Prior knowledge:
By secondary structure, the chain is α/β, with parallel strands linked by helices. Helix content is 49%, strand content 23%.
Amino acid sequence: MTIKRTLASAIVLSSISITPVLANDWQGKTNDAWLDGKVETALMLNSELNNFTIDTDVKQSKVTLKGTVNSEIEKDLAGQIAENVDGVKSVDNKLMVDKNYTSKAEETGKKFSRTWYDLTTTAGINMKYASNDDIEATSIDVDTKNGMVVLTGTVKSDTAHDLAIEIAKGFDHVNDVEDNLTVTN
């Protein structure tokens, strides 16, 4: 079994290492497709750019960049990255700059992140309440939306009330806590 894995690993590594060498002999559309993939990858690996808003087209080793970015700096950066990809002869940077532009992918990602934070915050606060003897977790309803935690329900003392508020405020991604708790003695 070890011999088969070693042989398979050697074949994969050989294929990966020889592909760039073979690419130097590629011509026409094959070479352009190879370069397009390299440019797309280089743009994707740069954390300052959203490569989903940048379209690339390669013809005869000449790259054309189209799409929208947020600043001249991002436009220049994308052009420089494309120019520095081995095999690229020239770059026609047709990127548009719109400082207010937000792509649908970015908006979706932000919404997903916010929802994820809200869900994990609610679950985490509920777990903290459940593990605390001074708080009856089943008597408190925790809702989180856009970083705002709303606590509704009852607690048995002022101490439990203050503790419930402090626990909620102590979580990451919590912007504020709305206190709708009632103290029942």
